[in-house]
Design a protein that fits this description.
By secondary structure, this protein is of the alpha/beta class. It folds into three domains: 1-40; 52-296, Metallo-beta-lactamase domain (Metallo-beta-lactamase, Chain A); 373-464, no CATH class. It is built from 17 helices and twelve strands. The protein has helices at 3-25, 27-51, 59-64, 106-116, 132-135, 138-141, 154-163, 165-175, 266-279, 295-321, 326-332, 348-360, 380-386, 389-401, 405-415, 422-442, 447-464; strands at 70-74, 77-80, 86-89, 95-100, 122-126, 147-151, 198-200, 206-210, 213-219, 229-233, 238-242, 283-286. Strands 1-2-3-4-5-6-7 form a seven-stranded mixed sheet. The protein has a five-stranded mixed sheet with strand order 8-9-10-11-12, with helices on one face. Strand 8 (206-210) and strand 9 form a beta hairpin. Helix 14 (389-401) packs antiparallel against helix 15, helix 14 packs parallel to helix 16 and helix 16 packs antiparallel against helix 17 (447-464). It binds zinc ion. The site of zinc ion has 6 residues, from helix 5.
Length: 465
């Protein structure tokens, strides 16, 4: 080897060793590298989603395309926009962060807030709940000496969401097909592992004053999880609501989500809404989309959400006591005109079903077979031996013609895969699903219902190929 090459090799060796020392012993260096890598990943994810035809026009695509920038929403109070917003409340002492957005958007949100507030120095990071679009950036902001504040149930919620991550990821991907195939598992972007240093329990608000700013934290369970924490700034009458209201305000709440997750308690949610009504906010700052600043809209919306939830709860309980069937209650219970709210996120008939199951759980006291492991589909082939399968498909088509897609789907479930001309079965299935989709789009426009129907239509079309 020539002398020049030897020197070069030694130099490269020194550089590698230097880099390794910096990486291993200077956490700041490691973090800045991870920030850069994650920022790139975030850009790729946004590009992939915005180019995916399955995402076109969906609420999720609308969220992912929100530009990330910092804006001052009240004196000294900053919001970094994104899929999930991050909020910085500055004081004459140290500053407080409320919610941290998605991990893949954290690098840009951190930069936006640091550019806007160059002397930013955090004492506390508050996370509204354990969902990845709110707690995802915590690890990026966290440094020695900063307190992480969460609801007392945060650790348990984070535990089960971590343990069941693959299961829920698969479910979410069914609804949002543009998501990556598997959840991120490396470094700062992996879900979970957040250890709160301060917690707030239900019914025990935490009140502190720092740098001239009063902070009050209320544990308000019931909506998007049992670990909801909201921040109230009494001097400004601003409520940072996290996901307490969901992505819209006002709306009929998603008391339980069809994505899965543990049960949410409907009466707790009503009680939590009462706490907020008593606070009487002038501004609500949710961690999705824009702040709500119209006092009349806030007041009326809060009361309506509380009364609508209570109404659906009470009607369900009354129907249960009257011995009515669940399906009958799902069809019968409707919001009265004075309590009408959008059902784009939460749906009244699903709330009826989930309140019913919240109280009575899994055994509907209906069929004996519910108690055992053999499903009805186990005897579908027997039915097809006795009945002409093509006649069932014909009957399903008649139901579709009569605008009765659910009756059609029940019949098609019997014949599907049973040896009858499968093109006719799948065609009829697509027609039935399309009727349901048109109804959903013309009616309540519930996003989750439409996501599910789109998934089923796509899946059935793929089987037709
Ligand atoms: Zn959220």
């Amino acid at each position: 080897m020539s002398k020049v090459l030897k020197i070069l090799a030694r130099l490269i060796g020194l550089l590698v060793v230097g880099f390794a020392i910096l990486y291993l012993f200077f956490p700041g260096f490691k973090k800045s590298l991870q920030l850069k890598a994650v920022d790139k990943m975030g850009d790729v994810a946004v590009k992939r989603m915005s180019e995916n035809p399955d995402a076109a026009g969906s609420v999720a695509a609308e969220f992912i395309n929100i530009p990330i920038k910092a804006r001052e929403i009240s004196g000294g109070v900053w919001q970094a926009t994104g899929v999930g917003n991050a909020h910085l409340i500055t004081t004459s002492g140290k500053d407080v962060l409320f919610d941290t957005g998605l991990s893949t958007q954290a690098p840009k949100q951190i930069k936006a807030l640091k550019d806007a507030v160059p002397d930013l120095e955090l004492s506390h990071i508050i996370t509204s709940h354990s969902h990845a679009d709110h707690a995802g950036g915590v690890k990026f902001w966290d440094e020695d000496g900063i307190d992480i504040v969460a609801h007392a149930e945060f650790v348990e919620e984070q535990r089960y969401l971590t343990e069941l991550q693959d299961y829920f990821w698969h479910r979410n991907r069914t609804l949002f097909p543009f998501m990556p195939e598997s959840p991120p598992t490396i470094g700062l972007i992996a879900y979970g592992g957040i250890e709160p240093t301060m917690t707030v329990a239900n019914g025990q608000p935490l009140k502190v004053t720092q740098g001239g700013v009063e902070f009050e934290l209320y544990a308000l369970p019931g909506a998007e999880g049992a670990d909801n924490l909201v921040l109230w700034l009494p001097q400004k009458k601003i409520l940072f609501s996290g996901d307490f209201f969901g992505p819209l305000f006002p709306q009929f709440p998603n008391i339980f989500t069809m994505r899965g997750e543990k049960i949410r308690k409907p009466v707790e949610y009503v009680n939590s809404l009462d706490v907020i009504i008593d606070l009487d906010p002038d501004m609500i700052v949710p961690s999705h989309k824009d702040p709500i600043t119209d006092k009349a809209v806030i007041r009326e919306g809060l009361v309506k959400m509380r009364d609508a939830t209570k109404y659906v709860h009470d009607q369900t309980v009354e129907g249960m006591n009257a011995g009515k069937k669940l399906e009958q209650l799902m069809a019968e219970i409707q919001l009265p005109a004075e309590l009408a709210l959008t059902q784009e996120h939460g749906k009244v008939s699903w709330a009826v079903k989930s309140i019913w199951e919240y109280y009575a759980t899994w055994f509907h006291f209906d069929k004996t077979t519910e108690l055992y492991h053999v499903p009805q589909s186990a005897v579908h082939s027997d039915i097809l031996e006795l009945v002409d399968g093509e006649a069932l498909v014909k009957k399903a088509a008649d139901y579709i013609a009569q605008d009765k897609p659910l009756e059609a789907l029940h019949l098609l479930d019997i014949v599907d895969g049973g040896g009858v001309d499968n093109t006719a079965v799948l065609d009829a299935r697509i027609n039935a699903l399309n009727i349901l989709k048109s109804r959903a789009e013309a009616g309540e426009k519930n996003s989750y219902e439409i996501y599910w129907l789109n998934y089923r239509i796509r899946e059935t079309e793929a089987r037709l190929q």
